[in-house]
Amino acid sequence: MSSFANLLNFYKDNLQALTAIRLITHTDRSVFITGKAGTSKQKILLQTLRNCQKKYVIFGSTERISLEVGGDHLSSFFGLHEPFYTREESEVPTLSQLKIDVLKNTDIIALVGIANLRPDVLQMVDRSLRTHLQNQQPFGGKQIVFCGDLFQKYPIEESHDKEYESLVKSNYNSSYFFGAEAFESSFNYDIVELTQSDSIDDESFLHIINSVRVNRFSTKELELLNSRYVEVPTEKLKLKITMLSHSGPANNKNDEKFLGLPGEVFHSTAEHDGIFPNEKEALPAPKTLYLKVGAQVVFTTDDPDNNWYRGMLGILKKIEGNALTVEVRNGINKRDVIVKRHQWYKCEYSWNIKDQKIDRTTSFVYVQFPLQLGWYTSIKMSEGSLFENVIFKLDSRSYSYGHFYMAMSRCTSLKGIILNKRLAMVDIFSDAAISKFIGTSQVYGIDPNKNLYQIDRSARSFRQNLRLINKLEENIIQSQLELNDIKAKLIKRNKDYGLMQNKHNQIQRSLKEVESKLTASISKLATKEESFNTVSSKTSRLQIIIVVLVFVIAALLFSSF
Description:
Blueprint: H1 3-10, H2 15-26, E1 30-35, H3 41-51, E2 56-60, H4 63-69, E3 72-73, H5 74-77, H6 97-105, E4 108-112, H7 119-133, E5 143-147, H8 162-171, E6 189-194, H9 203-213, H10 219-226, E7 241-244, H11 247-259, E8 266-269, E9 271-273, E10 288-291, E11 296-299, E12 313-320, E13 323-330, E14 333-339, E15 342-352, E16 357-368, E17 371-373, E18 376-378, E19 390-393, H12 403-409, E20 417-419, H13 432-438, H14 441-446, H15 451-560
Parallel strand pairs: 1-5, 1-6, 2-3, 2-4, 4-5, 7-18, 7-19, 19-20
Antiparallel strand pairs: 8-10, 9-16, 11-12, 11-17, 12-13, 13-14, 15-16
Helix pairs in contact: 2-3, 2-15, 9-12
């Protein structure tokens, strides 16, 4: 069975995942893969790209995401370093011929972490592709695959970005990536919304998360969530992490807990090869990691051997040179795992003319233990993590769109959540523009039973499957034409072979005739040779007689004298 067949078999019970895989693989339509946390959006995208026959490049919207997916940074590749680009901006940075060759020959351009991408940046990417590929179709006619969950993050959230928010809103229809001009034109794309969660099995908790996601939260659901309010947490058996609204206070709290621990300080300085172009962006692990035996730590990446996952908590038990021993817990069960330094990397792309493929060259390597202090975290710091037990200490409305949903989606169950205060409806809000774009705005406002949403999603799925069927039919027809062409060539070759066989037989017959004639000639020659030998023998005897007679006559003559 092929690797692609194995991929389809792995997701055989996940209709949305299969739809995304097939749209990317079998069509040239652009696709937006989205869905709530824990639905493996990024994993499905990367698996599809690595198992399909198309040439592809992967760009991260941030430097950290570029490291996590092993791709290149979108803004760096396209030379987009200005703080803002207006809607009227027409001059795009000139790309090298090396980059242009990559773009010309790639089939798919994948953009990961799309929630972080502002519309002005994507607009410039669109214009750059049209300009350098000399194709005025949206994105130069390339198949674009967007990946991310817009509900989790607002693209303009830092305090130093607030000055740009008014500029974005005065130039574009939305602050999200779909505010780019291409989405107002004839850009054809599909939205695939993943729904099956790999990390959350609690259906009631999933329902709460989805309600929070689109800001249509019922009083009953709010009461259920508030049932997790505990004034003073007392349970000591389980490791817990406390989530704050902002990263600064979370780091300060971790430092306080760390300084309060006895023992010797261990520090690990990260190794790196290459220039990291944006030091302001968060790295996947601290440049200098300070630890002590007994410190609570959190893993910052998934283990390839599944010994831990991103967000798992543990206690540092032993430090031995290049290896750390961390005790992790699953309920009351404890086990030790050996942790070594992890390698993250970014790559650059180039077109290999000889082999007709896209080469990937490592441009930056970052090596560090995949850990950081884990008593406290923030909504932003916890992006991509999963926690079994979390204490929420969040400020009311002190964070931007989607932050509470993002905080909730970091949890694996309702029973693993502890609230330090009761929540009100005003604490939970998301951006209606996202729901409108994705097509779920009518879900919770019109139909409490969500029947309209199910119908809408079924209609979307039907249209997507119909496009897939049409594309597969086109591929079948094309394959049939190619097969007919191969058959015609085989028939012609067979005919040519038949003619060659006839000529071969004729030559063989001619050779046999020549051989027969040659045999007859040799036989005649042998007979003549025998006759010649007989004559030669008689001639020799006659010559002897003549010689004898001559001697006799000579003797008689001499005797007479």
